[in-house]
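Researcher: Here's the sequence for the chain we discussed earlier.
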Amino acid sequence: MSLGEKLQYLRKEKGISQEQLAEQMTISRQAISKWELDTSIPDVENIIQISKLFDVTTDWLLMGDSEFPEKPIAPRFPQAKNQEAKTMLLKVLQIVLVIGGIALVLLLFLLGFSLMPV
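Model: Thanks. This is the structure I predict for it:
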């Protein structure tokens, strides 16, 4: 099994187009096509990126005689995870701002009383 066949299998298994994969990797669709046709091979950085995106090892990608994995491979496309992280961060920031605002008002209130002449 060639690297190109494996890449095409992984991409189709996840139902994404060459264009979508190219956008995720910030490369051209033509590069993906050449890799899948085995007319060229990705560089080391792209192989690592592919392995992370599709949750497979670089060994599996590069070994010519290995078969397709038996279980479906969960993609690691970052949109969903990033969105959850952004939402959580936004909630934490809102809480911190509310607490900080209350503390500031309380501090100003207390300082106002301590500066008043008796």
